[in-house]
Automatic annotation (TrEMBL):
Keywords: Oxidoreductase. PANTHER family: NAD DEPENDENT EPIMERASE/DEHYDRATASE (PTHR10366), STEROL-4-ALPHA-CARBOXYLATE 3-DEHYDROGENASE, DECARBOXYLATING (PTHR10366:SF564). Residues 4-244 form the NAD-dependent epimerase/dehydratase domain. The keyword Membrane does not apply. This is NAD(P)-binding protein. Belongs to the NAD(P)-dependent epimerase/dehydratase family. Dihydroflavonol-4-reductase subfamily. One of its GO terms (molecular function) is oxidoreductase activity, acting on the CH-OH group of donors, NAD or NADP as acceptor.
């Protein structure tokens, strides 16, 4: 059995990657920022094959101890927030320099296999973003520069997209300088699914799932369709782990989307399948607010055909997410 390191192991996606890797027979060492977070995570994963490593800071920390005995790395740790005070400090530098820090440490430790989590934002090279009549694929790149993103003149969501593109581009540049590294980047669209990582309150729900929670929390407001295409968290975790032992994925960018998902569609699914929530839900519009708009497609062939991960349909993904959030509500309360 080989030991892998998963960064951001106590995050929404990171915890699912840990679970998938453990289920696949790996010994997994997950990075967290503190001993308190390590203890929380060990309660989720009591297996003797799960270990933790304290990495307080993505950029400054020394990874020497964390990488001892490790044969591969899945780097999923990166901020996923839109509202920040300092775009450079809170988004750009943690994403870019955090990624380079892991790659440098891996190269020094002689670790060659690295799988990196990127984002659909790294692909969006059309002004209409995900409402362009195009199929985005591995050759597409978001065009924004670091200087533009750090200017302080752009909304947080745009800076987030830029942070993912710039971090991924920096990783590929590093891999070109060190051709012994075997890099794969996984590029998911917005990710929904059950929460298995430790959280202390509903206000701590990950950014993507908070969109679905906003539909069922009684606010009765239909959020805007900023990312009208989706994938489920279990499938994305599986893609990361399968990529570790796929030669066909080495040196490749692996985009993944299961298909369109508008807020109108999601609301309809909840209304039909969970009628007991009707008094919490916003009214269903007569027509989809974005009816008539084209939703971009994503070339997911490498994930589906080569790695063999089809992904869950929208209805199953939404209902798994809703049921998980309702369980958290019972456990944590609404405050």
């Amino acid at each position: 059995m080989s030991r892998i390191l998963v960064t951001g192991a106590n995050g929404f996606l990171g915890a699912h990657i840990v679970k998938e890797a453990l289920d696949s027979g790996y010994i997994v060492r997950g990075t967290v920022r503190s001993s308190e977070k390590a203890e929380e995570l060990k309660k989720i994963f009591p297996s003797a094959k799960f270990e933790t490593a304290i990495v307080p800071d993505l950029i400054q920390s020394n990874y020497t101890e964390a990488l001892k005995g490790v044969t591969a790395i899945i780097h999923s740790a990166s901020p996923f927030v839109f509202e920040v005070n300092d775009h450079k400090k809170d988004l750009l530098d943690p994403a870019i320099e955090g990624t380079l820090s892991v790659l440098r440490a891996a190269q020094t430790a002689g670790i060659r296999r690295i799988v990196l989590t990127s984002s659909i934002g790294a692909l969006l090279n059309k002004p209409e973003l995900l409402f362009a009549d195009v199929t985005y694929g591995p050759d597409d790149w978001f065009s924004m520069t670091y200087e533009q993103a750090a200017s302080g003149q752009l909304p947080g969501v745009v800076v987030y997209l830029a942070s993912k593109k710039l971090a991924e581009a920096a990783a590929w540049d590093f891999a070109k300088e060190h051709p012994e590294l075997k890099l794969t980047t996984i590029i998911p669209t917005i990710i929904y699914g059950p929460v298995i990582h430790p959280i202390s309150s509903l206000q701590s729900i990950n950014t993507s799932n908070s969109v679905i929670y906003s539909l069922i929390n009684g606010a009765k407001i239909l959020p805007p369709d900023s990312v009208p295409t989706f994938c489920d968290v279990v499938s994305i975790a599986r893609i990361h782990v399968k990529a570790l032992h796929s030669d066909a994925a080495v040196g490749k960018r692996v985009p993944f989307s299961k298909g369109p998902a508008t807020m109108y569609q999601i609301l309809q699914i909840i209304m039909k399948a969970r009628p007991e929530l009707a008094n919490r839900l916003p009214p269903v519009p007569e027509v989809d607010p974005i009816a008539g708009k084209t939703i971009s497609r994503v070339n997911s062939m490498l994930a589906m055909d080569t790695l063999g991960v089809e992904g869950l349909e929208l209805e199953e993904t939404v209902l798994q997410t809703v049921d998980s959030l309702l369980e958290l509500e019972k456990k944590l309360g609404t405050n």
